[in-house]
Amino acid sequence: MSDAVLKVENLSRYFRVGGFRSHGQLHALDEVSFEVASGEIVALVGESGSGKSTIARVLAGLYKPSHGSIVFEDEMMSKQSSRAVRGKMPMVFQDPFGSINPVLRVGHSLLRTLKLHRPDVGKSDRHDEAVALVERVGLTPGADVLRRYPHELSGGQRQRLGFAQALASNPSLILADEPVSMLDVSIRVGLLNVMKGLRDRDGVSLLYITHDLASARYVANRMIVLYAGRIAEEGLTDEVIGSPEHPYTQLLMATAPDPRLPLAEIEGEKDLGEPPKVIDPGPGCRFAPRCPLAMDVCWANTPPMVRLSPTHRAACFAVKAQ
Fold first, then answer.
1. Each residue's pLDDT tens digit, 216-270
2. Distance from C-alpha of 246 to C-alpha of 318, rounded to nearest angstrom
3. 96 Cβ contact partners less than 8 Å away, ≥ 6 residues apart
4. Whose CA is closest to 61, among 40, 87, 41?
5. Euclidean distance between CA atoms 98 and 255, whole angstroms
6. Where does 141-290 show beta strands of DSSP type E?
7. DSSP letter, residue 243
8. How far is residue 213's CA from residue 222's CA, in Å, rounded to a whole number?
9. DSSP states of 122-163 as a string?
10. What is the span of the domain harbouring residue 83?
11. Is 121 contained in some domain?
C-alpha cells in the first residue's frame, strides 16, 4: 500500500523461559508482516496466545522486537523518539484504568496530554480543546465530564474517555487492545461506532485487537487472523468472513455462536484439538496437530502465504493459489 501509515516486516518476538540449567524460547511472534493504510481499521483476531497483544506491545514500545523492522509514517520506528511515537500511535487498553489515573479528575489527563503532545494548542485554549475531545467521543456535556473522577463514569464512558485521551495527541494510528471485551454487549456497538467515526470523520487509522469476530466484521476494513504467533490468513473483512480458506479461520467461524441454531446444536460444537507448541517449535505448520486437512508436508515445512485474490492470502498447503 503506497499510503500505508504502518509497515511491519518479518516481526518476531521471543521470550526466554525455563530455569538456570535448562531454558528455551517462547515464540510469541514469528516473521509477521502486515500494513495499515491511512484511514482504515485493521482487525487482529485469534484466540488467546495467538500473539495479538504482543504485536500491540511491540508497537507501543513496551517490548523490543527480537527481529524485524517497523516503519511508521515512512520512517524506521527505531530512529524515532519514544515520546513522538507515543503521541502519534497511542494505545487504548482493555482496562480503561490502565491509562487513566483513578485519583485525579478526568480533565487532568487530557490537559496533560495536550500540553505534552500539542504545542499548537495554547494554555488558554486547552480546556476548550479538552471539552471538544470528550464530546467527539460522545461524552456530553463535556465541561461536566472533565470535572468528574473516573470512578464516577461507567465502564463504557471510561473507554470513550480512553479514546478521547488518545485523540488528544492528534494521532495517526490508535492501538486498540480489546477495548470492548469488558463491556456489556448492549453498549459495545456504541464504542465500535466511535471507532468508525474516528476513521470516517477524522481519518485516523486503528489497529483493533480482538477475539470477537462479530465486532471485527462490523468495524474493520481488513482482517488478519493470527495463530501461535504467525499469520494464518488475511484479507478484506468480507473476504475472510465470507470465504475463509485457512482451516483455523474456518474453526473460528464454526465456534462463533449462531443465534439461529438451537442451544443443543451450539453446545455440540467442540474443539478437541491440541494447543499449539510455541516453546522451541520445530518445523512445520503450527496448526497441523488440530487441522483436519493436515498432510505429510504440513508437519515438515512451514506453509508459505498463498495469494487467493489481489487482497486475500492464506498460509496453508491445502489452499490453491489464484
1. 999 999 999 999 999 999 999 999 999 999 999 998 888 765 544 444 443 444 5
2. 8
3. 150, 155, 158, 159, 161, 162
4. 87
5. 30
6. 173-177, 205-210, 222-227, 230-236
7. S
8. 12
9. -GGGHHHHHHHHHHHTT-SSHHHHHTS-GGGS-HHHHHHHHH
10. 4-90+171-315
11. no
Phi, psi of 269 (to 5 degrees): -80, 115
Residue 107 covered by a domain: no
| Collapsed DSSP state (helix, strand, coil) of residue 294 | coil
Q: What is the CATH number of the domain that holds 269?
A: 3.40.50.300
Orientation angle between helical segments 126-136 and 155-167, nearest 10 degrees: 130
Instruction: Tell me if 288 is assigned to some domain.
Output: yes
Burial of 127: CB neighbours in 10 Å, binned 0-12, 13-18, 19+? middle
Interhelix angle for 155-167 vs 185-202, to 10°? 20
CA distance 305 to 143: 51
Instruction: Say if strands 205-210 and 173-177 run parallel, antiparallel, or are unpaired.
Output: parallel
Would you give the DSSP letter of residue 79?
G
Q: Mind listing the pLDDT tens digit for each residue in 299-319?
A: 999 999 999 999 999 999 998
How many domains, in total, are found in the chain? Answer: 1
Q: Looking at residue 78, what is its pLDDT?
A: 87
In a domain, residue 144? The reply is: no
C-beta separation of 150 from 96 below 8 A: yes
Q: Which residues of 47-76 are buried (b: 16+ CB within 10 A; e: fewer)?
A: bebbbbbbbbbbbbeebebbebebbbbeee
Burial class (CB in 10 A: 0-12, 13-18, 19+), 121: middle
Contact 93, 177 (CB under 8 A): yes
| Euclidean distance between CA atoms 38 and 185, whole angstroms | 29
Q: Which amino acid is at 211?
A: H
What does the block give as the cell for 249? 479461520
Which residues of the chain, if any, have pLDDT below 70?
1-2, 22, 98-99, 256-275, 322
Q: Is 206 exposed, middle or buried (0-12, 13-18, 19+ CB in 10 A)?
A: buried
